[in-house]
């Protein structure tokens, strides 16, 4: 089935009608998970829920760009966000239409002016990370010129409230595991919550939504379940988001880039514990971490469902 998701102004108007601009996971969507029969450690028969994984081939105008492995929701946001975060679309590019064909698993993003993706494809390199994330040799050309908001703040009370809400909100992770989540928040309120089999897909969906709906990133907070790697820092800075938070740990290059960009970088955020390694000046300590209950063990992703730190 082919669906024309456009023209772009209609997409924006449709999405902006959502209450408070909130997009949350829909674990009841039958397309995103399925029940599989198996046995447990004692040999007893069981049924368990697993997330779906499907290929989506992305075209920019007439050129095939990449095949992404995804759960399949929000293909338009994923495609646009991927192209933005790979510098293959620029902030002033005009998207004229997005055509999605579910039968052949393809999506075509069409722009008014010709893009320079052929040159960028020559610079393509493979990087580590789930879902074979890719980065192009010229990503840093935009990174170096970005100035993040100096007035943005992260109150520790917001951080505690957000981590609790994210962990307990209905999600594919709680239903089936084996999935990453990313959240865009303002203060202690979730604006967008996206999930996918690869953390970069979840980031790209949020980038696509922000682009289409012209969301001001200057006072927002980005949360991810994945590691704070160089690529995650680069994408957050390119989205002009001043604060990045994760449940997981850091890489040295990720920390170096965050400090260079003036990004507030917080990792190992579980319950009322966290570690900040860059941008400390934005953190306001307005809540006592010793008061109140810590994170419930049911919602701890590290070690949960047999996994370690999410990548």
What would you say about this model in short?
This protein is α/β, with parallel strands linked by helices and 311 residues long. It has helices at 8-16, 75-85, 117-122, 139-143, 156-168, 172-176, 199-213, 230-238, 252-261; strands spanning 2-4, 33-39, 45-51, 54-60, 63-70, 95-101, 106-111, 124-126, 134-136, 154-155, 180-186, 189-196, 220-224, 243-246, 264-270, 273-278, 283-284.
Task: Spell out the blueprint of helices and strands.
Blueprint: E1 2-4, H1 8-16, E2 33-39, E3 45-51, E4 54-60, E5 63-70, H2 75-85, E6 95-101, E7 106-111, H3 117-122, E8 124-126, E9 134-136, H4 139-143, E10 154-155, H5 156-168, H6 172-176, E11 180-186, E12 189-196, H7 199-213, E13 220-224, H8 230-238, E14 243-246, H9 252-261, E15 264-270, E16 273-278, E17 283-284
Parallel strand pairs: 4-7, 10-17, 13-14, 14-15
Antiparallel strand pairs: 1-6, 2-3, 4-5, 6-7, 8-9, 11-12, 11-13, 15-16
Helix pairs in contact: 2-7, 8-9
Describe what you observe in this structure.
By secondary structure, the protein is an alpha/beta fold. It has a domain at 154-306: 3-Layer(aba) Sandwich (Cytidine Deaminase, domain 2), CATH 3.40.140.10. 27% of the residues lie in helices and 30% in strands. It is built from nine helices and 17 strands. The chain has helices at residues 8-16, 75-85, 117-122, 139-143, 156-168, 172-176, 199-213, 230-238, 252-261; strands spanning 2-4, 33-39, 45-51, 54-60, 63-70, 95-101, 106-111, 124-126, 134-136, 154-155, 180-186, 189-196, 220-224, 243-246, 264-270, 273-278, 283-284. It has a six-stranded mixed β-sheet, sandwiched between helices. Strands 1-6-7-4-5 form a five-stranded mixed β-sheet. Helix 2 crosses helix 7 and helix 8 (230-238) packs parallel to helix 9 (252-261). The longest helix has 15 residues, at 199-213. The protein is globular, with a radius of gyration of 19 Å.
